[in-house]
Amino acid sequence: MLSISRFFYVSVRTDPDDLAATQHILQISRRNNRRLDVTGCLLLAGPLFAQVLEGRRDAVVPLVARIAADPRHSEVRVLLEQQTMERQYGEWSMGYFDDSGLEERLRALLTKPHSDPDAVADIMARMRPDTVLGALR
After folding, report:
1. Bridge partners of residue 98, in order along the sequence
2. pTM recorded for the entire structure
3. 103 with 48: CB under 8 angstroms?
4. Positive or negative, the Cα torsion across 136, 27, 101, 110?
5. For the domain 4-127, what is the CATH code?
6. What is the pLDDT of residues 53-97, one digit of tens each?
7. What is the pLDDT of residues 34-60, one digit of tens each?
8. Distance CA 86, CA 3 (A)
9. What is the rounded distance in angstroms from the CA atom of residue 32 to the CA atom of residue 2?
């Protein structure tokens, strides 16, 4: 089995009121991720994004670099980069959910000088596919 690279980042949206931009991001991501064999999930929590991306390293690393340079957000902070043997988001080219209740937890991850692995793991667990609720929570 091939090794999978998984990245998790948090960022601040430059225009929190622009929901059309988020829909555009999802539309383009889903199309491009299928082509690149990248899976993941985008979380919107008030003015913050959190995203998990997973796939071959040669596909995910350049994608993360392009995302970090995207002017639709700032303060991009990669909090997890790991190699694994299995995808956790394999059913989604790009899942999505909106949970403003996670805003303070994401803000804490963004502003703490050191990453909190337990907090990152908890947020990522909340972003995983749910067989009952489906891809669009």
Report:
1. 44
2. 0.90
3. yes
4. positive
5. 3.30.70.100
6. 999 999 999 999 999 999 999 999 999 999 999 999 998 999 998
7. 999 999 999 999 999 999 999 999 999
8. 8
9. 20
